[in-house]
Amino acid sequence: MPRSRILQIFSRCSKQSRVFLFYRQSRSISALPNYTQLDDLQEQVLVEGRSKSRAAILNRPSALNSLTSSMVPRLNRLYNSWEENSEIGFVLMKGSNQAFCSGADVVMLHQLMNEGKVEECKIFFQTLYNFIYLLGTYLKPHIAILDGITMGSGAGIALPGMFCVATDRTVYSTPETQIGFHPDGGASFYLPRLPGYLGEYLALTGEKLNGVEMVACGLASHYILKERLPWIEERLGKLMTDDPSVIESSLAQYGDLVYPDRRSFLHKI
């Protein structure tokens, strides 16, 4: 093989390695997900049906349930159909394995940009923001179980709903600020409404909150230990109502009254 061809291949591989390293360093929430095993597109959002409820399960555990251009339209279709179905009283959303949702899939977006598919990126964000608006104006009670990583647009598809359940594994932040992007996914609505200067602090720093801190500042409505989640899901699955007060009392039945640790930065803001 000619030397010039070898140098060309080496240069291309080196460039790809630098791109990988950039994302590995900039995504502080965890190590970069393994994308060598492609998730089945039809199983990225699973559906669970109970007596009077439906559940959407974000199912991309290899990528911390980050949102793709196929997942968001599916969520839109599901939620619109459930809202129109009079037999469904309330809706629940949760994630699989160690995350609720880590936000938009930045690797997918980066690849689209490199391929010159700018319009597809625009459509992705337009569809995502439309879904967040749908959730914020949803006519039925909505429960988001934030068990694990809940970041960026992952928080955006949860916080506008009526109930947000945090656990002892919940980690919230706006990590997009660390790669030069503004806090999006509805953050410009809910961050300014937090106590004191907390919203401004979170938007500028991307600081993390745990489940207890989310409840303390009002981002989450309930705190439930992870080990009790099967009990609460079983309880919710048996409800034959769309009454928010009944749902709230069911969540409170297994919830805990918690306070931030004295070392929490919430006490300083």
Overview of this structure, please?
- By secondary structure, the protein is of the alpha/beta class.
- The chain has a single domain (43-261, 264-268), classed as Alpha-Beta Complex (2-enoyl-CoA Hydratase, Chain A, domain 1), CATH 3.90.226.10.
- It has 10 helices and 10 strands.
- It has helices at residues 3-26, 71-84, 106-114, 118-136, 153-156, 187-190, 198-205, 211-217, 229-237, 244-254, and strands spanning 45-49, 53-58, 90-95, 99-101, 142-146, 149-151, 163-166, 171-173, 209-210, 222-223.
- The strands form 2 sheets. It has a 6-stranded mixed beta sheet, with helices on both faces. It has a 4-stranded mixed beta sheet with strand order 4-6-8-9.
- The longest helix is centred in the first third of the chain and has 24 residues, at 3-26.
- The protein starts with a helix and ends in a 15-residue tail after the last helix.
- Residues 54-260 form the Enoyl-CoA hydratase/isomerase domain.
- It is an enzyme of class 3 (hydrolase).
- Hydrolyzes 3-hydroxyisobutyryl-CoA (HIBYL-CoA), a saline catabolite. Has high activity toward isobutyryl-CoA. Could be an isobutyryl-CoA dehydrogenase that functions in valine catabolism.
- Its EC number is 3.1.2.4.
- Pathway: Amino-acid degradation; L-valine degradation.
